[in-house]
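Continuing the batch. This is chain 6 of the set; chains 1 through 5 are on the previous pages. Same settings as before, nothing changed between runs. Recording input and output for traceability.
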Amino acid sequence: MSEAQGQGPGLVYSRLLPEVFAGYEDGAPLTVLDLGTGSASTVAFLSRFRARIFFADLLEHPMALRPGEDPNPLGLQQAIARQLALPDDAMIDVVLLWDYLHYIEIGTIEALSTVLLPRLHRGSRGYGFGALHGSKPADANRYGIADREHLLALPSDQDPQYFAHSQQRLSEHFAALRIARGTLLREGRLELLFNAP
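Output for chain 6:
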């Protein structure tokens, strides 16, 4: 029996979330970077570990390029590093990307990848969502983790521009983490498991 009882509002079964935390027993040290809004459910779930959690809602403080704008890679990298505000000793085990990569242009994805790469290790994993057939999901969502098998996906009042990058484009431009698997969630969203290269 899973920890989430019933199918409450916003509760979504995930096939890949268990793989993100596979090998991490309760009480194990774990460093997590959450690129979402930060949710109480995620904090509650991660409290079972000896977790260091870093939240950086990059949509709240956008640094994405405007469409067609020429990227300044070094400037973007510096802006992202400031926003992440990771301590020098932080090595990330899990990156919760959610759908953030689809709200930024390729130049910003490459800059984020460059900033994350030295913070990851061979066993680092990521979790996020892909664009299905190049279309935007019905609702922009705020995400959280309910338990090892369930997400919370709640409506968001934000409606930033959505770029719907294909898996191929993400693979070409987000070198920090590689797409290992993808599955279709019941509600039509494509979930992705990423591994460090």
